[in-house]
Amino acid sequence: MEKINLSKELSENSYPGRGIVAGRSANGKYAVTAYFIMGRSENSRNRVFVEDGEGIRTQAFDPSKMVDPSLIIYSPVRVLGNTTIVTNGDQTDTIYEGMDKNLTFEQSLRSREFEPDGPNYTPRISAVLQVENGKYSCAMSILKSNNGDPSQCNRYTFSYDDCIAGEGRFISTYMHDGNPLPSFEGEPRPVDIPDNMDGFADMLWSSLDQDNKVSLFVRYIDIETGEYTSKIINKNV
Asked: Check: CATH 3.40.50.720 for 6-234?
């Protein structure tokens, strides 16, 4: 599969929904992840990312305008030892609790399925980045309805051992805007991962639709030391 130009992919798509990138910087030094959220409704757009321990959580920008916190208030990023968990919903906690009990990433998600927000049935997308003893691997998952049929949950897990320098994978909840919203299809797309975190974050943020983008999180983790640097960009400030 050929790499896509992520900036072009995002700038030509007004609504990929929520997206995750996981990969390795070009110099091979950093495990890299990014997560963005978008929104079409006032409730979805009324959010910001805030730091929460080693991870982050979503929070209402204006609490007085929050209509329904379910599905939009959660912890997108949590850290369990040498594992960084990134998801688009409260399955972050499910993965954290499962892996803490020695279940695998895939096993931990067996109790979950797509979101109950028909007719969209938004997929649950997740990633785990594992850094240990100078080695780095990652995995991604998508739980989605069967072509919009909620009677069946289709489960896909993609594992990437010994991640290649300069390469990442991108997955989003939707293919593009629509009614209902069409779920992501196929494998996570290969993308380039640069060395510069600020430049990567700026590229992602500037490529997202101006009206629909809400928040962005980017983290670079030193594969040798486990130390990390993060950046949060919120449209609501």
From this structure: no
